[in-house]
Amino acid sequence: MFYKRRLLAPGPTPVLEDALLASAKPMIHHRTEEFNAVLKQVFQQLKEVFQTKSPVLLFTSSGTGAMEASVANLCRTDKPALVIRGGKFGERWADITKVYGIPTDVIDVPWGEAVDPALVEKYLKQKPETTAVFTTLSETSTCVAHPIKELGAVTSKTDTVLVVDGISGLGGQECRTDEWKVDVVVAGSQKALMIPPGLAMASVSDKAWKKVKESNLPKYYFSFEKHFKNIEKDTTPYTPAVSLIFALKTALDRMHAEGMDSIFARHKKLGEAMRAGAQAMGLTLFAKRPVDVGTAVNVPAGVDGGKLKKMFESDFGITVAGGQDSIKGKVVRIAHMGYMDPFDGLAALAALGMGLDKLGHKVDVGAGLGAYIRVIQGA
Ligand SMILES: *Cc1c(COP(=O)(O)O)cnc(C)c1O
User: Fold this and answer.
1) How many structural domains compose the chain?
2) What stretch of H or E contains 233?
3) Is the torsion defined by CA of 36, 39, 45, 50 positive or negative?
4) Strand locations in 89-197 (E)
5) Same domain, yes or no, for 62 and 188?
6) Could you identify which of 52, 146, 260, 374 might form a hypothetical disulfide with 379, taking C-beta atoms 3.0 to 4.6 angstroms apart as the criterion?
7) What 3-state class would DSSP assign to 46?
8) Where does a domain end: 258, 282, 310?
9) Helix residue ranges per DSSP H, the chain
10) Mean of pLDDT values over 51-75
């Protein structure tokens, strides 16, 4: 049987066709009125996607570049940072703060669970001098959503800023930056923003700018202040990824047309349908507080999760992700993020059932697909 290739892993994700075409346009010089006009709109439209009135800085790097930039621009070597771990990406924050010599405290959340905001509150009462709390909107390795709104309610009462890795999810997973009092949100281009890898962004609140002024860490290419000065002139400090910015402009136009509330609602529905479908097949979910943009399904006992993940690709043309570290071989992670619709998820769910069947674990594929479709239909 011939199967189309379907990219349903949590990043990179499928690219909007119009954005691909936009990125294929002939190169133009980046110090021109023509390009400044594009950037001016991009900087404006990014605020809508980030749900903020604060400036959104744009970097030529993958998402991790903007994570590192956030640490380097906000922190001091003589003041602590608090990192919420509980997955690969929470761990990355602590890896970065340690590299910069920042006294780092961590709250270790068991994989699959979300942080309890009361623990953060308690910590900040003990160490009010803490510069920042670093956490994750959608912990891609576990498909857990941390309670960002509740964390914002905690940090906003203190002098500490809340920094959220929104790389997987921003533009799909609900993130009301200003309303929830999040100070810095980091994003990457290749997840819910529907364009290829290579751009990163960070929104920076007034409260965070104060930390930027006080920071004593070295930075050059990723200097927030330098980027901000250039935004005010509708430009970037260095040669940006011009073609990707054409693509981004196209994706942002489309997101504006769909509307952020509709985008959040679509992802909520896709998540709900996937979870209902997997459970109706008799499967269980890894995340106790799941995100809308991806689902980690537990691989049933006796099934080789690595084989199942490979089978998605070799037998059905579908790329999904497996588990990492302690959950390697124990979960498959299916994304429903960005340029994806209900039929993408349906294909993934069918392949999950068919794959398990082939590996000798009988499931009721029809029951799963039926449950999925009923959620989509709103029944
Ligand atoms: C993908 C991802 C990253 C990594 O971003 P890169 O673009 O590979 O640097 C960081 N955080 C989360 C939550 C992610 O999903």
Assistant:
1) 2
2) none
3) negative
4) 104-108, 132-136, 138-139, 144-145, 161-165, 184-188
5) yes
6) 374
7) helix
8) 258
9) 17-23, 33-50, 63-74, 88-99, 117-126, 148-155, 206-214, 224-231, 242-258, 260-280, 305-316, 342-358, 365-377
10) 98
Per cent of the chain over pLDDT 90 is 99
Question: Does the Cβ of 64 fall within 6 Å of ligand 1?
Answer: yes
Average pLDDT over residues 338-354: 98
Is 167 near ligand 1, meaning CB less than 6 Å away? yes
Ligand 1, atom nearest to 10 Cα:
15
pLDDT at 94: 98
Report how far apart, in Å, the C-alpha atoms of 292 and of each of 20, 141, 153, 200, 284 are. 25, 14, 22, 21, 16
Domain assignment of residue 205, yes or no: yes
Q: Does 251 share its domain with 273?
A: no
- Give the confidence band of 66 by pLDDT, cuts at 50, 70, 90: very high
The residue with tokens 């290739």 is 5
Q: What CATH number does residue 282 fall under?
A: 3.90.1150.10
Ligand 1 atom with minimal separation from the 139 CA: 13
The pTM assigned to this predicted structure is 0.98
Share of the chain above pLDDT 70, in %: 100
Q: What pLDDT shows up at residue 34? A: 98
Q: Are residues 124 and 104 in the same domain?
A: yes
From the CA of 99, how far away is ligand 1's center (Å)?
A: 18
Contact 327, 207 (CB under 8 A): no
188 C-beta closer than 6 A to ligand 1: yes
Token duo for residue 230: 């250039």
CA of 146 to the centre of ligand 1 (A): 16
| 114 and 146 Cβ atoms separated by less than 8 Å | yes
* 171 inside domain: yes
Distance CA 289, CA 144 (A): 5
Residue 295 and residue 147 share a domain: no
Termini Cα distance of the chain: 33
Residue indicated by tokens 């590299």: 99
CB-CB contact of 88 with 141 (8 Å)? yes
Q: How confident is the model at residue 12 (pLDDT cuts 50, 70, 90)?
A: very high
- Token pair of 370, please? 């039926």
CB atoms within 10 A of CB 369: 17
Q: Residue 256: its pLDDT value, please? A: 98
216 pLDDT exceeds 90?
Answer: yes
Does position 379 have pLDDT exceeding 70, yes or no?
no
Q: Which domain holds residue 345?
A: 6-12+259-377
Are 102 and 207 members of one domain? Answer: yes
